[in-house]
């Protein structure tokens, strides 16, 4: 083999590995968008009265609410649960917190690099609309945004008025996933 053949082979190998890595990275975003289409269909079934309408046969989650943030063009289906598998497809409703739109505080989490990327642009006063399976819509307003340490922060859910807390990892441009910091957006129906 000549030196030129080796260089061409090495370049082709590197190009192939690079394309593979780009494809893997792009797949995360494609999967998130495709899942939202399937979730929209499952949400329509939920609105027709089908309990626990699964978006695909093997899904271990189902839609519990629809979340819209008009100022940022956001329209997402919220799933039950917050496991890594669930959050790969959409934002998840934390068990033990109020149902989104009902009395009490609902906690919804999502990934900072897909569904909840818009949170870094949310501002105080932005409207958030939550629709429940009963088709009732609640209009909430962002009250505050904050960064908390997940090792010590406590989110209280006993409030009697309708409230919503959206949580994602922080910082938004972190190179490594995880870490203890969380970005928290708090909204309430009272607007106070």
Description:
The chain has 192 residues and is α+β, with helices and mostly antiparallel strands. The protein has a single domain, classed as Sortase, Chain: A (Beta Barrel). It contains 2 helices and 8 strands. Strands 1-2-3-4-7-8-6-5 form an 8-stranded mixed barrel. The longest helix has 45 residues, at 3-47. The chain is globular and about 75 Å long.
* Count of β-strands: 8
Computed structural class: alpha+beta
Supply the number of helical segments. 2
Kindly report the average pLDDT value. Answer: 87
The CATH architecture term is Beta Barrel
| Integer-rounded radius of gyration | 20 Å
How much strand? 25-35%
Overall geometry comes to globular
What's a concise summary of this model?
This protein is of the alpha+beta class and 192 residues long.
Attribute tags:
alpha+beta; about 25% helix; globular; Sortase, Chain: A; about 190 residues
Helices and strands in order, then pairings?
Elements: H1 3-47, E1 63-69, E2 74-80, H2 84-87, E3 92-93, E4 104-109, E5 127-131, E6 137-149, E7 162-169, E8 181-188
